[in-house]
Every structure is written in C-alpha cells, then in structure tokens.
Amino acid sequence: MASNNSIATLNLPSGWEYAFNSEGRIYYIDHNTKTTTYSPPPFLFSPPSSPSLSSVSSLEVSNLKIEEKSNGTSSPSLKANVLSFTLNGKKQSVENPDPNMNLNEYIRTRAGLTGTKKTCGEGGCGVCTVVVQKVDPTSGKLASHSINSCLKPLCSLEGTQILTTEGLGSQKKGFHPIQERIADFNGSQCGHCTPGWVMNMYDLLENNPNPTPKNVEDHFDGNLCRCTGYRPILDAFQSFAKTITPSSPSTSSCTAFGLELKDIEEWKAPSNSNYTHKSLFSPSSCTNDCNNCSHAHSCGEKANELVFESNGKKWIKANTLKQAIDAVRQATTSGQSYRLIVGNTSTGIYKDQKGDVLIDLSDNKELAVSRMEPGLMTFGGAVTISNMIQFLQTYCDLPTVPAYQKDNFLSVIKHLKYIANVQVRNGASWVGNMVLANNYPFPSDLCTVLMAMDSRLNILDIPSNTQKSLPMFKLEMELHGLETWFWPTIMFPTHE
What we know:
The protein is α+β, with helices and mostly antiparallel strands. It is built from 13 helices and 22 strands.
C-alpha cells in the first residue's frame, strides 16, 4: 500500500485500462479484444525485477510502480529520455514513454482521471477532448487549443500543460461556470459526452473570451451527443456570448393565458454579462534560462532533440529542419521505416500506418512558419489547418487587402472549415492531409482548393538534397510511391 507521500499507478500494457464500478470495485478493460473482466490479468503477477535502492526513492514490483514524492527537495535534472509535462497543474515525469501510447490512455490508466472518455478512437465524437497549452514555436508565446486525446501521442507532449475536466472543477473543489451552466440548462443526460463538450467550450473562451452566438455554434462540429438533441447544450454555451439580446416580439408567436409564447426558433438563451473568463493555465514565466526550463524540448529557443525508445519503436522530436532531415537519413540508412508526425490525426482514419521511427515535427520552428512574401503567401509543412485558417482570416481583416484577394481567401477559409472538425484541425497539418491523398484513396478537400488556388509545393528530396517546386496538379504524377520526399512549404499566389 502506498503511503500518503506516494503515488501508485497500475502500468498496464497498451490497449488495457482499468476503472471502478458504482460500488468502487476495480475492473479491467481490454480494448484489443473489446472485453472486460473483474479478474486481475495474469501480467499483473509477473515476477518482480530486483530494484536498485542506491540513490533512487522508487520501487518497481511487476507493473505496479510506487514513486516517493520529495518533501520540499529539488528534483534532479531530467535525463534525455524523460518526458515532462503538467496535467491539471501537477508535474508529470515519464521515463522512456511508449511511442504507441496516446494521451487518452495515459490520462485514464496512468493518472486515473476517468472524466475524459474514449468512444470512437477516431477523432469524431469529441468525448476525449482536452485542452493543451504549449509554446508556439514561431512566436515563443503560449498558445492553447482543444485536441482529441485519443489521437495525440503521449511522446509529443514535452513541455506542455494539459487540462482535463477534473482540472476545470469538481464536486469537491467546486464546479466551473461552464460545468454549472450545462447542468442548469439540462444539457447533460447520460453524461458520457459532457466532459468533452465542456472542455471544448473552455478552449473557445480561452482563445475568445467574448464569443458571438455564431462563434459558439461553429466551435462544436467535433462533439456528438445522442441524448439531448443539442438544443440545451447550445443554449447553455450561447449564454456565454456577449452579444445576445432578448428576442423582439413576433407576429408568429402565440399567446395563452395572457402570456406570449415564442416559437422555439425565436427563443434566445439569456446572456451572462457577469462572467469573466480566467485562464486556469500557469502564466508564461520565461527566465531565458533554457537549461532549467519546463518547456525544454518544445521552445524554439532550445531546439534540443528528444529521443524515446520502447516496444520496438523510436520517437524523435525534431525541433529543427536539420534534425528532421538527419533523422530521416539515419532511418533510411539503417533500413528502418519512418513516419513524419505533426498531429497524428490520420491514424483515426487509417490504422495500418507503419513506422519503426516516428519523427515529431509539431514544434519544428522552421516548418511551423506562416508568412507573406511579395505576391505569395507561404505556409510551412508543420502549420496546422487551424493556424492556416487563422492566418488567412487575419490577413482578410486588414483594411488594405484588395477585394479580389479577400474574396478568394474567404472562400478558402470556408472550404478549410469543412475539413474534419475543430479538434482535428487544431492538431492536423495541411501537409498531412495531402500525404493521405498521396498514399491512400483519400478524397482530400484540401488538394481540391489548393489546385484551384494555383498553389505550388516546395519539396526536398533528402537523399540527393535537391529541391523541387511543383504545381499542385502534378503532385500525384511526380510523387506517388516515393517515401523520401520532404514537404517543407506551400505557396498561395496573391495575384488576381
């Protein structure tokens, strides 16, 4: 039994998790065979290894790991194979994490926070939604966004802050206004999807404290509910909008008992002008001391390569273009297959993607850049679809933008919002969408609009170290079946 100064977690194999029934009895879930059992799996009773007690205050007995917390003493510096991030404000350190493990599995089975659910495992239902804050590799500022934890690799979370529904509020510490509002408006019935809705609403308010009703409605294309019919959820969340005004009398309304009864289409949720959003994330506190920074491997100012190896997989976090190219060359030279990763959202569609070496580009400063150039708009290969939309919208909002450019780019924005949903677009890169179209029979909406924009791809052939600039319509003809091409940038023309 762990003492009050220790943390106990069951380290189960990939695909397994545990939970508790209404009586507090533990049971085990095997997602590989889609079965549950109250009997402890045999692997929990494998012979324990002999622990070293020399200088480490931790014991490992089979798959039960007990780590003693230090009482006020400073922790030693992290090794290169230790993943460090915070979960609901509590620091997490995972030694040599499994590249196959996703964030949802860690939250539920390692941290024991079962408020975050898992249903489809494909990024379509939204029950696994959490909010992640990290240092933007191009601006150096903290940025937060909602993601599907079922698709997010644990290894990609170095230096991030993660917030789940338990971090938002609870019965013990008090509920957050978002949680209270969805309950007050009867927006929860079975409750399985509710944490995902709540976290996505928190993400909206974190990035837009004064949303319009339209902003609220557009933000939830990635959340499903099979109970409520959506109306009470929409009413609850639109009550946070600042621009809602009481609906005016209508001739289509009817009266009964001397009272005006409005049609449901006319009814508007009351706004709460008293709500002021307060971030629950820790503020940025850059000290320019990169050697002792919690964002050590995610900040562009300290572009150190991070490597994890477990269960036959290698994870390389490549924060520079050179690191990425070197990782690809090393994998191909050694005969290993590799896969470039930004959001990993494609695994929600195609489960058979291989890769002995997984190369993480999500914090690659050179590939995450969006910029305007004379006659061109350029996006790096690690730019997410959401960031592409935001950049285009910011440009369209400039008063000096010609009308033809504004019309063109607003059409592109509208088209991009048809791709997947908010949580997927927050993690997925535009280039990942195109790689799917190149490697699978995937009907890419993005390729269609890029061809219509007369866009060009700047591509690097790593073995020969040569670059090509290709028009979009030549993409399949030039690249199909080639595995060594690298996708640095795409260019939108801004001419009429």
